Amino acid sequence: MSEIKKSTGAITEDPILGYRPLPGVPDEMLDVHGQIRPVWQNLIGALGRMSEAELHERFARADRYLRDAGVFYRAYGSQESGERSWPISHVPVLIDGREWEKVSAGLVQRADLLEKIVADIYGDSMLVREGILPPALVGSNPEFLRPLVGVKPAHGHYLHFVSFEIGRGPDGNWWVLADRTQAPSGAGFALENRVATTRAFSDIYGETHVHRLASFFGAFRDALQAHKRYPDDRIAVLTPGPANETYFEHAYIARYLGFMLLEGEDLAVVNDRVMVRTVAGLKPIGVLWRRLDASYSDPLELNQTSHIGTPGMVQALRAGSVTIVNALGSGILETRALLAFMPTISRRMLGEELLLPSIATWWCGQKDERRHVADNIERMVIGPAYSRLPFFEDNGRSVLGSSPRGADKPSVSDWLAAEGGRLVGQELVTLSTTPAYAGGRLIPRPMSLRVFAARTENGWQIMPGGFARIGNGDDVAAIAMQSGGTAADVWIVSDKPVERQSLLTPEETFTRNMPGSLPSRAADNLFWLGRYIERAEGALRILRAWHMRYAESADPDAPLLADVTRYLKGIDMDMSEALPEPLIRNIDSAIYSASNIRDRFSLDGWLALNDLAKTAKRFHDAVQAGDDAAHAMTVLLRKLAGFAGLVHENMYRFTGWRFLSIGRYLERGLHMTRLLGHMSGPAAPDGSLDMLLEIGDSVMTHRRRYNVNTARLTVTDLLALDPLNPRSILFQLNEIRTEVEQLPHPYGTGQMSELDREAMRLHSGLAVMTTEAMTADVYDKLEDEMERLSDLIARTYFG
User: Fold this and answer.
1) What's the CA gap between 405 and 491, in Å, rounded?
2) Residue 630: which pLDDT band, with cuts at 50, 70 and 90?
3) What stretches of 37-103 adopt beta strand conformation (E)?
4) Whole-angstrom distance, CA of residue 745 vs CA of residue 797
């Protein structure tokens, strides 16, 4: 990359930048005099010394990190897969630290103003009473929650964490495009963007004085800790669930800050206190960082159709027993029409002008404003007044004023006159451009910044960065990621070295905190994750044995193969396919269970599980019966073993691990019980016992332990009654009994629970059995008892 001359003249053509005239250089790189801003010179110089191959290798590093970390967002309304890889724009946006101080001051002022506005709307209503804010924008607003009027937050503040969509014009001035106060998203993505970008430019990042992000999150975490009223209160992130577009971030933030990740069904309101259902009983929640829309939080008093809320949540707020971040009802501040009144409100409530102006907005419910919009329609964007999204994000509901109306539509003036109260006009903005790498060169793309503010013990703190949303073309509307936009890291650069801070403060002494209580829903998902994984492994072992014998005989009607086919049909495995669809469904069910506990599930385990699913689906359409299928089963079994090894070696040995393990032991015990009941009887075809040992991975053990050929008694002894064989039924029941004894006592009476007694009885009953007594009826009864044990676990801990 050739040097960019510090002048307003032309620059030499460059194969990476791809520019001849200086006007082609992105606005963000230029100051008001048309010179390259000093903050960009180091990065641009470094890029200029890199070959295209080196750039691609660096970008691949960032992409690999995001892929390995499983970073995704969910796209709606697309025929493609719902989960999409995080769309990073690899070249960061650089902003001088001194300029950022001015931006931060404007955002702090705005956050204070928003706090005063929402407090007035749900309190004294001075703004409406004095005619500053039209009553319709409050009373008719779907985000105005009447049950919250007069309900003051427990700690006095409505807003704790907000974000702002800001943009810079080509003239260098910043303005606010939108305020986000409902449940602002993106802070976790900003962290992952930072990590990915530093993977690509670690050397440049290291020598550039970039402000770190950890202290911002640390200060906010400390502030939330201070909001707890009681020592045993817990802090949680409240998520709508895995189907939400930013669920990855919910899980990431909860894991990063050490908070619980909960859904509405995890909570109950008891005696006006919010409680979480855990395997150790109900535990109090003191602070909820809400990531779902307020109206869905309480189906009792707010949205009665909500299936993701918690009945009684509003009553808990009235009692002052819980702090919600942000307060229910604060989404009204995102109303697009409110931007039109912000300058006047600022003068009235703060006694000062806005340091960062809003994008010019006119509410068309007023005659003069409506006329102004109609007279200047060519440079207006018309959109819904109550929309909470900036015009480039509202899924096409905003239209350019200059767009043809069509013969069947009213004129603009008639449209504004008829629906003015539901419309706003906003000045069509031209956003500044930033470098984006595309087609082997850096090209200018429009951008906006999402910036975050957190209320800390020392007041509002602005994240020194955030992320920039980059358009995929010149159209400003293409900035939204749902429309194909990308996201870039934002570096706030100081002119002197910055302190390298961590979320954790080093201490000479420490306290070992025990893991928090396990929510019942998480325990349920861990239990079934273990069962689905073991169910898939059991099916794979049977299928592999079947295909290996089919490869030898090529006769599916041979007695042994026909008998196993009947058994497989009984467990919903149709042998018309080499790799039956139910096997794929078992693996998908395991992934679904794991997706519900992303905050508690290791990244390596998640990647291993997804790799298993992708491989299984690839084999499903490709393998042929016989040797080909047997080889495919072996590959899948190895991947399953890798996943099981990761879980066994890396998962902390606490309550969650115990439920996962119990699920595996129980399913393995059921698997072996059914097989022995079907294949070890006197009527079983020749070869059944050898096949049983193969499926039970016990061929070598049988040869070492028994000096005879396979026989019903020896196979029964090894696979049913041997306490040392990790594939035997007795081994599974012994492990279940041991783990059940370590689970939290659900009733706290000090007496042995029904579950303890049943686990002990089941184990003891089998331990005293002899091989001769193990008949098909005994196996049937044992299967029923293990299924009842599963139901008892669910009733005890998951209800």
Assistant:
1) 43
2) very high
3) 72-74, 83-85, 93-96
4) 10
